[in-house]
Amino acid sequence: MNTLKNIIRAYEIFISYYSVSYIIFYLLLAILSWVAIKRYYKSKYFLLKEILVKSNHVVGVSIVAPAFNEETTIVYNVKSLLFQEYPKFEVVIINDGSTDSTLEKLIKEFSLVKVDFFYQDKIPTQPVRGHYKSTDPIYSKLLVVDKENGKSKADASNAGINSAKYSLFLCTDVDCILRKDTISMLAKPFIENTEKVIATGAAIRISNSCEFKDGMLYQSHFPDNFFARFQELEYIRSFLFGRMAWSKINGLLLVSGGLGMFDKQTAIEAGGYWHKSLGEDMELITRMRKLMHEKKEKFLIVYIPESLCWTEVPASMTIFLRQRVRWARGLIQTLFLHKKTIFNPKYGMTGLVILPYYLFFEFAVPILEVLGLIVLTLDFLFFSINYNFLFIASAFVYLFYITITLISVFLDQLIYKHYTGIKEVLILLVMVFIEPVVFHPINVYASIKGYWHFFRQKEQSWGVMIRQGFNKNDSLQ
What we know:
There is one protein chain. The chain is α/β, with parallel strands linked by helices. It has two domains: 1-46 and 176-458, no CATH class; 49-175, Spore Coat Polysaccharide Biosynthesis Protein SpsA, Chain A (Alpha-Beta Complex), CATH 3.90.550. The chain is 53% helix and 16% strand. The chain has helices at 2-43, 49-54, 74-82, 102-110, 153-163, 182-192, 226-248, 264-269, 280-294, 317-337, 348-382, 387-415, 422-438, 440-456, and strands at residues 61-67, 89-96, 112-115, 128-134, 142-147, 168-172, 177-178, 196-206, 211-213, 216-219, 259-263, 299-311, 471-472. Strand 4 and strand 5 form a beta hairpin. Helix 1 crosses helix 7, helix 1 packs across helix 11 and helix 12 packs antiparallel against helix 13 (422-438). The radius of gyration is 23 Å and the shape is globular. The termini are far apart. The mean pLDDT is 87.
């Protein structure tokens, strides 16, 4: 019994120091994020996007968007992607072996015909069955790639990268709605910086309950779905708060698969997306960073604190858990695959700061929280609990958690004013206070389940994302 008591006390001491370290690190991220946002808006007009839109000498960009069984919305979404305000781009849609009428609807709506296409399999994928172009000059920027199903977005994206003709590619989901200046905004860092930029990303917002017109956001609304509301808080906190801080110190390890622009040559040289990964966006960035360190070349990964993309998020417990289990498994999968990089000075900040952070904070936190509950239970059953200390510690952690979220919400509303109604803002603020005790435990459960599946080597596919569809005011006809 004394041994158990000593173990419990040792854990309590460890978790105290760990918590202080975690809070200090997050405060540092808060400062870096604020500095980065201020710097961005001061330099935003150094190269006006209007110059890019009107220039005939800009770098070309290929929008790569995989599609699998998207017959319901494929026509609307493709037209939305074609409405980008940029002089030199193409839209590459990859029909990943759809079993519905996705390809047939594309062929009919856009007058597609199969064409001879010089296809180089620079990144190995499932066989490509053909390429389609439109006979209508209006849709000359559209290329449809038909391939056998690869059972992953990564395989489909790689086929799109192989087919892309431009030196930059923007990877997105076919169901995402992009702001009309998305290409211009993401391409600017590649043009402005003297150091080589290998990737750029920007904020993604939740489309649930929003209204869209002509392929663009018409009216922003706070989601009316329970799960979507909590995810809105997550997105605000992670995209505006966390990623801006990492961008400031060139430490981004995650450029969202829903919206990211990449240097095609570097991505191909790194091997493209790994088709077995459940977190292919993070894993690709990790390999691209490693490649640049091995080549001893300076590079940048830039994040833009503007909402350029809207996507639908899970609205049910089942779909949400499936997504978060996959994310958790993708995290540990990436860390395990690149374990020799961690603390390796050869890989600079990637090996000495970024990957250790994801290991000790992102990966470890759910495990430590579960262990904390076990320790608390043992303390309650066999030993005396210092209830005053427990209350003070819990209150401190809770207040710190909501303070970070409130700061993120304040900055978001101050800068972007996405919500025009005071009612929506008040609902958002209420969700801030209940998120730690309602939504956070669900996330912890999903993370532990994802880790367990990884260690058991349980097979997991991407699964089906059941979507409600966008609230559209027209059909882009």
